Amino acid sequence: MNTRHFTRALSLLLLCACMTAARAEEDIDALFDDTAPAAGAGEDLEALFDEEEQSAPAMSETGLVEPVTPVVETGLGLRISGFVQSEFAYTYPGDAHYSKFKNLAKVRITGELSDRVSFQVGGHLQYDPVFEFENYYPDAVEDDQKLWGYLDETYVDIDAGQWDLRLGRQHIIWGEMVGLFFADVISALDLREFILPDFDLIRIPQWAARAEYFGNNFKGELVYIPRMTIDNIGEFGAQFYPFPVTLPAGVQANFLEDKTPTDFGRDFGAGARGSWLRNGWDYSFFYYTSPDKTAAFQRSLSGAVVPEVSFRPVHERIHQFGTTVAKDLGSFVFKAEAVQTLDRQVSVTSLTDFDGLDDSNELRYVVGIDWVGEAGDHVNLQFFQTWLQDHAPTMIYEEIESGMSVFLTTTRLHPDIKPEILWIQSLDRSEWLVETKVSWDFATDWRAVLGADVFGGPSRGLLGQFDDSDRVYWEFRHSF
């Protein structure tokens, strides 16, 4: 979607929205403010099954639900909201360099066509001039990340009594663990900065038709996606390109274009989910099939004088069965998610394997505990595992990979100042990620963030491959 016409159209949309917001007389809270209370803490789980129409919630970087606030009224029956944000990052290990000076805007326009039909139009546009003065990255990375935009959530909602229908580009969120993605199997992800940005910037919506049924203590969902949007991993040579493979000395690597699913008849996604609330337990079961939105690297070998290995990201069809569980235990909230995936492609290290991939069924699960104190303290602990059920010795990952995470934050120092730390640790090897930041809501609709992200571990690890990508950063966001 990096076409010239799209960029011009989206730029005009953003300009009009900002001019309208500037003329508005109403003072509103930021729709994407990160000061939301922890999901589940003191929350009445019955609200999850309210039969009244509910808008899709915004998500913070921790995966917690943020409140949706009424926004600017235009006098035309439309409401405009969104934010503009500036981000700067400096990467300091090895060859220290400026790695980001991103400027982005998200705009959302909502309205009603009738009492039972409403709509939303959204846009995302970003520009990073760091490539104008920093020559650290290859040209392909500059072409991919310098200017980028897409049509954000854009859909029509139809209220049909106990059924709600949503048609268009939308987020479909089935999992909500802190800092990690498990049962959240549908929305595509922008992984060009790994999992470091806020979740409202990582998720990319899908073109989908969704039907939701609301009954007594039951919610059902049917989802159909005519053609999948896949994870955006960027271009080889970028700071967070996901390639934990070490090649032998003297072997050159060539990375081919992503084999994106494009067949409307074959590359569809479809699934169903049922959720129940019983005796205080909120649980769900789902089935989903699609081309794998997470790329596997298909390999081919060249017999030239200088050996060359070519890699192409591919997306074969997978089938996923999953469940989620949540229980309010007073001051604690228990959560768990599990996903069984069939026919996932896994990279192998053996050069005798023709395409460098092997099939394996995979089970991933996570269990977590949330605690929220009266003084604004919030603690989250999580344990997770991945089990490759058809494991082969040449696969780049172990048969069972275990890890844990700790998330801490508080507002006891000041209501407008919130320090946070998220520590993700492998339990199989010395591999870890620590995300730290301090957010300051210094004025109405304004937020400043100062933070640092630090990686450690071996180069073949999921986290350790970014050991030279430690960075410090700041952000400024204005919401309207």
Q: Could you walk me through the main structural features you see in this protein, from its secondary elements to its overall organization?
A:
This protein is mostly beta strands. The chain has one domain: Porin (Beta Barrel), CATH 2.40.160. It has four helices and 28 strands. The strands form four sheets. It has an 18-stranded antiparallel barrel. Strands 15-19-18 form a three-stranded mixed β-sheet, with no helix packed on it. The N terminus is likely disordered.
Key features of this structure:
480 residues, mainly beta, Porin, 3-stranded mixed β-sheet, 4 helices, 28 strands, 7% helix, disordered N terminus
Counting H and I runs of at least 4 residues, what is the number of helices?
4
Cα end-to-end separation: 25 Å
In the CATH hierarchy, the third-tier topology is known as Porin
Protein structure class: mainly beta
Q: What amount of the residues lies in strands?
A: over 45%
Helix proportion of residues, in percent? Answer: under 10%
Number of domain modules: 1
| Shape label | globular
| Rounded average pLDDT | 85
Main β-sheet: number of strands, strand sense, barrel status? 18 strands, antiparallel, barrel
- What is the architecture at the second tier of CATH? Beta Barrel
C-alpha Rg (nearest Å): 22 Å
Let me know the number of strands.
28
Which homologous superfamily in CATH is the superfamily?
A: Porin
CATH class: Mainly Beta
Low-confidence stretches: 1-69
